[in-house]
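User: Please predict the structure of the protein below. I'd like the answer in structure-token form so I can feed it into my own downstream comparison script.

Assistant: Understood. Taking the following sequence of 314 residues as input:
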Amino acid sequence: MDAILLCGPTASGKSDWALALAERWPVEIISVDSSQVYRGFDIGSAKPSPALRARVPHHLLDLREPHESYSAGDFVVDALAAIAAVRNRGALPVLVGGTMLYFNALVRGLAPLPPADPQLRAAIDARAARLGWPALHAELQTIDPEAAGRIHPNDPQRIQRALEVFESSGRTISDWQRDTRPSHALNWSRWALVPQDRGVLHARIAARYAQMLEAGLLDEVRQLLARPDVDAHSPSMRAVGYRQLAAHLGGACSLAAAVEQAVAATRQLAKRQLTWINADPLWHRVDPFQPGARAAWMAALQTDIQSILGAPQR
């Protein structure tokens, strides 16, 4: 074994479980979160505090400015480097987060997709401006139902890329992705937190978003939008919980409506995360809301942890 992977839907308790490991073993946490890579996205991404980061080392945080892009390919390169560095320090790398695209790229590899085509992208953008992104998502549903099932109708970046790949190559992005191979020979101890009671998860999602608002999330979004290099259409600002408040600050809706939309969108995000997990039988599943589940998980991990800590870095 080379590292522990811990995924799950938002608000399922992943970070707390990883920190429990850090109380018993020399753990360093590697974030698998597409919002935590951005500087300034702190409250809404549940980024660990400086005090916590001083106590338990965290990696792959604050890598990009909000106007910059960060891809699954970037993540794989950075994650592999972080794993090697943690192993060389004699510590236990624990990769924790809910960005399932990143986990999938790490464990399965990246497809050799066709390069970006600026003219084709411009044409797709023009269609979206005329018809709306949900209409292009419906188009993708006809072309590639598998990809459409993973991509939200309001996720223009991924809708655009899926259509671009098909129109430039004649093959769906799902076909390309089935041809992937990992770029490494690492072995994983793979675990997923999968709540059986969705009502409990939904309540936790609503409570956590309320806590983020109390902690100053609206001001965080306001400060981000005040930057000259950030607007509501920046890639980073498409994050769930941020884009709804950005719409409110732009005058599109009331704060109450934005909060309601953000909570609903977060529930949909959790559903998509669980869809990714359920499509991959290699995840060991644990219900985090069952009594004693975390203690049983930690006991089950002992052999893998000893294997990781006792083996030389490859």
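That's the full token string. The chain is about 55% helix and 10% strand.
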